[in-house]
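This protein record is not my work; I was only asked to verify it. Would you go through it and say whether the fold makes sense for this chain? Here is the record exactly as it was handed to me.
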Amino acid sequence: MEQTKILLEESDMPKQWYNIAADMPNPVQATLHPVTKQPVGPDDLAPLFPMQLILQEVSRDRWIDIPEDIQAIYRLWRPSPLMRASRFEKVLGTPAKIYFKYEGVSPAGSHKPNTAVAQAYYNKMEGVKRITTETGAGQWGSALSLACNFFNIECKVYMVKVSYNQKPYRRSMMQTWGASVVASPSDQTQAGRKILAQNPDSSGSLGIAISEAVEDAATHDDTKYSLGSVLNHVLMHQTIIGLEAKKQFEKVGDFPDIVIGCVGGGSNFAGVSFPFLYDKIHGKDIRVIAVEPTACPTLTRGPFAYDFGDSIGLAPIVPMHTLGHSFVPPPIHAGGLRYHGMAPAVSQLFKDKLIEAQAYHQLEVFDAAVLFSRTEGILPAPETAHAIKSVIVEALKAKEEGVEKTILFNFSGHGHFDMSAYDAYFSKKLTDYSLPESEIQRALEDIKDMPKPK
């Protein structure tokens, strides 16, 4: 009998996160202060983050212990299943074996609670009463709302306006868990008011929402800021995904030749891929592919440069592949992938050619999502569908070459709150976006005077 679900016992759940900083051939370059443009230290980050997360951010230790209080909440849905997509393989007619790590089993429906719970815990330990954050598609905002509810912390979410309007049930989900949610840009911060003065009809962006959340945290003594992607500690918390997957592959005597994840800021991609990149760095032959939308082609078309993490220039300056902090992507339905920059660790790994990047159009991504759903039964989020499109490309390539491959992708979240996107797809209202080079060059003008990374 062919095994569909490869499961672990709760006792098998990893007790440590993996920190890829210990093994990167070239370390991530220094983060700079947004005003002085000098390397930041822990004290510079203290107004925004609790000290334990700051220490994780700069740590070079390979393994970081997961506190039992975090493990106890993880056990509500972890370990998540590794699934064999055998029906998908058959419809593609591929000799490749396709597996996916199903992170949609979390209460919030995505991978995001893996770091949300950790961040809420460390804030609680420091006595923080209130946390602000941003969210694009709503996956991160709902995850942090859930986590803050567990630890009795007030949560304020600045939700990108286009997603606030497209995904009202994500907003309701956050409110169910006790969060306050506003559409960004809003009139509640100086950053939001500045954007609205320039463009009253702004659809918003993750960069703008980050500016609002950072400003809110920096101007309230009882408040810290929480980020759902990009930073090293966030990516590290997600590595429980790949660490579990490695144990699950051991159970079936297999190992991936190709690891795939969609990528916006980098968190779910890092979560599935970093534990396998350890093996690649140490000599194993593995391809690791990050998949992004052509409407926001950060890795595939953005230069490696120093840039602000937000739109206004309040957040630290980080070395990353970027489209420029003033760049506002088109309002595609994969809201979680609409970020102008890429995680510094992911950017450095791409620069060092340890990972690959692919970009796909919105319509072909939804085609892939529907094909997957009609064979495996699970409805993917638009973000996850980017990874599925890449899986199809790689599986058909294996078919053409007549070679067996084992492909793993991260099913980062289900699409149950994205039905308006599917409605638009089936009614043929979705369109592809080809980003003009002139738009990228215009946004990059804003960073021409930044320090240059090595």
Notes: The mean pLDDT is 94. Residues 5-9+67-109+233-437 form a domain with the Rossmann fold fold (CATH 3.40.50.1100). The CA atoms of residues 93 and 376 lie 15 Å apart.
